[in-house]
User: Which sequence fits this backbone?
């Protein structure tokens, strides 16, 4: 019988099969940030095992609370910084070079098709956009990954999600994944890999594929995964041009990871996005999703654009198209956090930062901060935030706060009106002005 | 092998996420002990009081489906560990939370909904005991009941080894 892409990656990285249903994998990359890594480092030191399996395969960043907001976060940053220096981890990103991990590491070319990747962060599934098996893990898995370069997983059963149709103007990857989570529910893909295929995925940029894979965990999935193709090869070309004579050669080589036609799937889901409206969450679970029209008019106090879900250059462009020449409502606090220095710089070059600032947004440095209620935009009790992030859990962005998840375009339209708003009429107007 | 069980506390809701078990604002702590007072502080559950004496005395949690979803934070397991809770029984678990439990040598047991219904029906004065040789969970409340469970063989190995670090260090 044929294999899925996840099964092929497992077969190529199998270190051990300790029990029939578990596989210990060799890891290509172990990613680290300052929230979940310090306790692993401290534990290794306390055990007299302060070693790393391969400093070149470990990548580290200070991203969740940066610049540090208090003594405790400064200590966390210090522990990771000193550890990175001590072990000569050259790919360590600190103030001035740091950004949101799941946007920064792909930008650096660290994630390649067929790789195995872990990080002590649930949104590690983002990296499956490159045709890698990438899974979020806890601190103990991370600690063993750092020390031994291995991680254990159950056999990777896969749900094949085939996405067809044409996305309407003002509807994006974020709307697609929210729609899919609504169908699957928050545990519909638990212990499964979600393999995204079909013409809609083929037509997506790497940025959009990362948005799609980023929220696979919100349906419980171990990893989201896309088949690596010409789009993947073009994105990675600056990093892989030494390995391949031509882009075509890279694309042909990536084909070895493709799921076989007779591969076994634990489930299939066909999603037609024709006619899909912009999607917005309500309630406190990411599967509580409605068409924007059902929530239109809901007052918001804050609009947050950023995060590993939607803080990339494309996201900023989509929002800026709506904000151009407009002001955000006086009742709204607008916060933009470009996900990486590269995104920030590109947005400056394109005039996007000016567009945001003239509209009345505050622009922060790249950081995860507000998404999980740690810094740079925490909500007060009773406040409502329209957010491009990935979790609307109770208290997620601040105790007693309410979060509505949506695309950057919907968030920008909402910022302008002060209430949840369909972005499509704004885009139509923008078109007419251009014409 | 280690003994699991004792007085149990029921959290009768599905999809309890790790932000509810330990809010992100406490993730700046660099010691597991510092987490202990904040267990389940943001849990959204009718009538639930995170300061309840019964919760303080609990050695086990009984819950519904998809327990521990969301963030990968192992802090959600450590906060139970530091409150002397090393057993969670539920209809199902989110993958990362379940793995974190076994990685710490703790026990996450899945039972069908009918069994969880039956355990909850035993009333608030509930005590659980686990027989890892016979794969039976004994529950004592208004009366006694026993429930057969299955453990993934590798998860059993982790409990036996006292966690993933000990297992991995011995094997790899």
Assistant:
């Amino acid at each position: 019988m044929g294999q899925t892409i996840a099964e092929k990656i497992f077969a190529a990285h199998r270190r051990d099969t300790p029990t029939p249903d578990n596989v210990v994998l060799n890891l290509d990359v172990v990613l680290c940030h300052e929230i979940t890594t310090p306790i692993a480092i401290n534990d290794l030191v306390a055990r007299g095992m302060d070693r790393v399996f391969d400093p070149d395969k470990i990548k580290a960043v200070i991203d969740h609370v940066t610049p540090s907001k208090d003594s405790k976060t400064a200590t966390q940053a210090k522990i990771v910084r000193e550890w990175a220096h001590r072990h000569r981890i050259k790919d360590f990103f600190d103030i001035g070079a740091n950004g949101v991990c799941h946007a920064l590491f792909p930008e650096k070319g660290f994630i390649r098709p067929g790789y195995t990747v872990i990080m002590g962060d649930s949104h590690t599934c983002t990296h499956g956009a490159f045709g890698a098996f990438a899974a979020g893990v806890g601190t103990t898995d991370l600690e063993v990954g750092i020390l031994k370069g291995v991680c254990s997983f159950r056999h990777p059963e896969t749900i094949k999600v085939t996405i067809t149709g044409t996305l309407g103007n003002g509807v994006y990857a974020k709307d697609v994944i929210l729609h899919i989570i609504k169908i699957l529910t928050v545990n519909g893909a638990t212990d499964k890999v979600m393999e995204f295929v079909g013409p809609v995925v083929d037509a997506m940029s790497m940025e959009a594929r990362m948005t799609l894979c980023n929220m696979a965990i919100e349906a419980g999935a171990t990893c989201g995964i896309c088949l690596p193709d010409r789009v993947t090869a073009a994105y990675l070309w600056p990093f892989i041009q030494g390995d391949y004579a031509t882009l075509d050669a890279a694309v042909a080589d990536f084909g070895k990871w493709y799921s076989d036609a007779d591969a076994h799937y634990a489930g299939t889901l066909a999603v037609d996005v024709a006619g899909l409206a912009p999607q917005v969450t309500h309630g406190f679970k990411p599967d509580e999703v409605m068409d924007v029209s059902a929530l239109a008019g809901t007052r918001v106090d804050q609009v947050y654009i950023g995060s590993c879900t939607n803080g990339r250059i494309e996201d900023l462009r989509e929002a800026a198209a709506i904000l151009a020449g407009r002001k955000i409502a006086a009742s709204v606090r607008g916060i933009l956090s470009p996900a990486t220095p590269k995104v920030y710089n590109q947005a400056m070059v394109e005039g996007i930062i000016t567009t945001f600032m003239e509209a009345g947004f505050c622009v922060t440095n790249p950081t995860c901060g507000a998404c999980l209620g740690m810094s740079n935009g925490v909500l007060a009790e009773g406040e409502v935030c329209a957010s491009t992030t990935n979790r609307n859990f109770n208290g997620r962005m601040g105790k007693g706060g309410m979060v509505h998840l949506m695309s950057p375009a919907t968030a920008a339209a909402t910022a302008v009106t002060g209430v949840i708003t369909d972005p499509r009429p704004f885009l139509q107007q923008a078109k007419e002005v251009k014409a | 092998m280690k003994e699991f069980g004792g007085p149990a506390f029921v959290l009768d809701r599905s999809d309890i996420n790790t932000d509810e078990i330990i809010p992100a604002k406490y993730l700046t702590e660099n010691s597991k002990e510092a987490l202990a007072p904040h267990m389940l502080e943001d849990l959204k559950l009718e009538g639930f009081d995170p300061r309840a004496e019964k919760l303080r005395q609990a050695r086990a949690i009984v819950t519904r489906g998809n327990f521990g979803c969301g963030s990968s934070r192992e802090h959600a397991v450590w906060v139970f560990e530091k409150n002397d809770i090393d057993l969670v029984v539920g209809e199902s678990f989110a993958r990362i939370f379940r793995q974190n439990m076994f990685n710490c040598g703790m026990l996450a047991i899945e039972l069908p909904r009918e069994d969880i219904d039956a355990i909850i029906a035993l009333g608030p004065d509930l005590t659980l005991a686990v027989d890892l040789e016979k794969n039976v969970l004994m529950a004592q409340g208004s009366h006694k009941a026993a429930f057969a469970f299955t453990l993934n063989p590798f998860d059993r190995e982790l409990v036996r080894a006292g966690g993933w670090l000990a297992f991995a260090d011995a094997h790899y």
Remarks:
- The two ends of chain A are 55 Å apart (CA to CA).
